[in-house]
Amino acid sequence: MSLPVIKLKRGKEESLLRFHPWVFSGAIASLPSDLEEGAVVNVISADGTPLGTGHYQIGSIAVRMLTSDPDENIDEQFFAKRLRAALDLRKTLGLSGENNNAFRLVHGEGDFLPGLVVDIYGSTAVVQAHSPGMHFARNIIARELTRLEGAGVTNVYYKSETTLPYKARLDHDNCYLIGEYQGNIAIENGLKFHIDWLKGQKTGFFVDQRDNRELLRAFSRNRRVLNMFCYTGGFSVYALSGGAISVDSVDSSAKAVSLTDANVAINFTPEDAAARHKSHAEDAFKFLTAMQPGEYDLIVLDPPAFAKHRSALPNALRGYQRINAAAMAKIAPGGILFTFSCSQAVSKEQFRLAVFTAAARTRRKVRILHQLTQPADHPVNIYHPEGEYLKGLILYIE
Ligand code: SAH
Fold this sequence. Notes:
single chain; 398 residues; alpha/beta; seven-stranded mixed β-sheet; 11 helices; binds S-adenosyl-L-homocysteine
């Protein structure tokens, strides 16, 4: 069966020849008038040269390329092959085993599957489609996930209610595509976490902070720790396990705070938890304003994406400046600050400038100890630098 064809304007094949995985709508010369959103399409240059196959969608990104090989079909075998390659990489990284079974199996463009995210929590895969094309392929993907040897996936939960383009009107409820709820405890670096994929944010957990949490564990001994924007308490559990004197977890969402408490409770005795951990359902700005100077000697600032779009950039940068200035002004001498931005619209340089401005305002001696990014199970496709989103700094404040 031949696929619908999208023809590009002259010269607009350049980025595809450099393996960039997107075709912007402005690059298109012609497409079939009855082309449906989510369709698998062949893309050709102005002179008719085949450039590959992708998923079509209405919007500024019009095609997300799945293959540059004109002879490769987008079928079960295609997904089986890409998922196999993704799992092989995670096995190489040592992420799928007894000590760790929470990881990202598919990171969109970073795994040559644009529009698809799959996180693994033990025997459950949580699948997120960001494009109509991946939505239509969801049942094939689910089946291939359970067939993927060595993955141990028996349940597939589909969670795309908030990630599919609103205008596509796919109106799909979150649900199990295969299997059912069979418990929700996953292991990350030997620590246990309840993962709430049914009601939690994203796929239920922020697997992208795994390496940074491990680093924090090493810095926590004998420190009084503040974990700001704690969500499920990942950093809090690591800090406690690293020998922190005390850990305060703060999030404006009461639900997040109770998830944090639950995660502390499954890793530590009730006495230990009561003695060393406290959680607060409070606004970050309020908490930072009320905090006493010298109260903490390790602070984590891992806020939500302040800039979801470029238009929000100036406000976002001011937000980063404000929270970082408050933390740096009040952290105890010799304190360590872990500070992050997960906004894709904020560049590494812009984030660093915001943190620099905050530091200068406090007039303290501040040094960068580590520059952090996303872990290896969130790989960046070298032809798609836009895939880099998580930035962080570990600062030493005298
Ligand atoms: N550090 C977490 C992820 C943070 S996600 C981890 O490692 O898993 C961002 C969190 O910030 C969310 O849980 C959200 O509820 C919380 N949040 C958003 N705005 C806030 C505010 N003004 N004050 C405090 N928490 C806030």
